[in-house]
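Renewal narrative, Specific Aim 1. Our central claim is that a sequence can be written position by position from structural information alone. The example that follows is taken directly from our test logs and has not been curated for this report. It begins with the structure tokens describing the chain, in the order in which they were read.
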């Protein structure tokens, strides 16, 4: 069976094959180690910029400087380990968003992926560089707003778009009620609507599906719907090269389907996490008093927040899960082993080939 039958995701002059973008996972979950290992397989590796610097040890005015320096170092480290495609995920909600974007552009990353808010002014920071800009959206309406804004103000369109559905991990771009009650539109539906908008431009804008995509069968299903590629994050956590502490990875391995749960984050968004004693405490309304010295997220109100999400995620990255939780996608419980990135990508290719072969066989029978 040919396991090299996956199509190529083309974003401008970038060619990504297999057509997989590794999702950016903060705080310090996807850094240079994971991104470079992924890039070495032909996929696109992504560094998450959120909380890269050890800000918890140096609070206050150094916050932005620490993160920018850490991002620069991670990009350079990744470049020293691969000649493949390296991107950076930068959330609009970050207080130091502009500084991080400028750093990524100065370091000549291949792409900037930007969500958790509308990246309406992202093109203004390009400084003439050929850095691919990829917004993350949860609806065709949002994508249309971004396209009109970029076209009217910067004479530019997105180089690609990532459509993130409600089964994704971490902070989610949907209402808490729609996630809990499962009334949020399915990724399949949103993808079809976004493709209509993307195909209305010339050239057509590549659409990338994200959120709940776990195996090669899922990749085949979404490619059949018309997307050009997929973004996957959860499956890359349980790899040798993933930058996060082993305890974080073990939380995935130990989880059952019922352990993947939704919390209301202090930043005002629902978040998907793996349940533990800490999660139970915050669900019961218990608070962890703190004094904010850096206001890392624009949407966080330190006076009302029950705990510091930045500190909690920093603890998670260090493996202190008695004082934190692990963000995770809806399929995290399906992770059963920790393997090298190269092995994982080969498995995804095999799963994809098997799915395509089964589909052809079914068609012949019919």
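The sequence written for that structure reads:
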């Amino acid at each position: 069976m040919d396991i090299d039958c996956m199509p190529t995701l083309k974003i401008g002059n970038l060619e990504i094959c297999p057509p997989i973008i590794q999702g950016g996972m903060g705080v310090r979950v996807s850094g240079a180690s994971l991104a470079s290992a992924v890039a070495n397989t032909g996929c696109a590796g992504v560094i998450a910029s959120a909380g890269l610097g050890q800000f918890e040890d140096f609070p206050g005015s150094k916050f932005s400087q620490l993160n920018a320096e850490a991002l620069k170092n991670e990009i350079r480290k990744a470049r020293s380990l691969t000649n493949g495609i390296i991107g950076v995920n930068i959330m609009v909600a970050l207080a130091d968003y502009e500084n991080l974007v400028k750093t990524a552009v100065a370091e000549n990353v291949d792409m900037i992926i930007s969500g958790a808010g509308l990246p309406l002014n992202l093109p203004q920071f390009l400084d003439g560089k050929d850095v691919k800009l990829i917004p993350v959206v949860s609806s065709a309406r949002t994508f249309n707003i971004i396209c009109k804004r970029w076209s009217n103000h910067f004479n530019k369109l997105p180089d690609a778009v990532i459509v993130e559905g409600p089964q994704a991990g971490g902070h989610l771009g949907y209402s808490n009620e729609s996630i809990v009650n499962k009334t949020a539109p399915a990724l399949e539906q949103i993808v079809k609507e976004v493709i209509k908008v993307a195909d209305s431009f010339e050239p057509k804008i590549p659409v990338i599906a994200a959120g709940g995509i776990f195996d090669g069968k899922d990749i085949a299903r979404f490619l059949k719907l018309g997307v050009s590629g997929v973004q996957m994050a959860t499956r890359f956590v349980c790899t040798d090269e993933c930058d996060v502490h082993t305890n974080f990875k073990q939380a995935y391995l130990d989880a059952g389907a019922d352990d993947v749960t939704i919390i209301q984050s202090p930043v005002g968004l629902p978040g998907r996490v793996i349940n533990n004693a800490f999660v139970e405490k915050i669900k019961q309304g218990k608070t962890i008093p703190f004094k904010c010295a850096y206001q890392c997220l624009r949407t966080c109100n330190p006076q009302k927040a029950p705990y510091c999400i930045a500190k909690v995620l920093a603890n998670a990255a260090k493996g202190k899960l008695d004082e934190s939780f692990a963000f995770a996608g809806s399929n995290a419980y399906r992770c059963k082993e920790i393997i090298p990135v190269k092995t994982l990508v080969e498995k995804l290719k095999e799963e994809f080939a098997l799915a395509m072969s089964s589909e052809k066989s079914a068609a012949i029978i019919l």
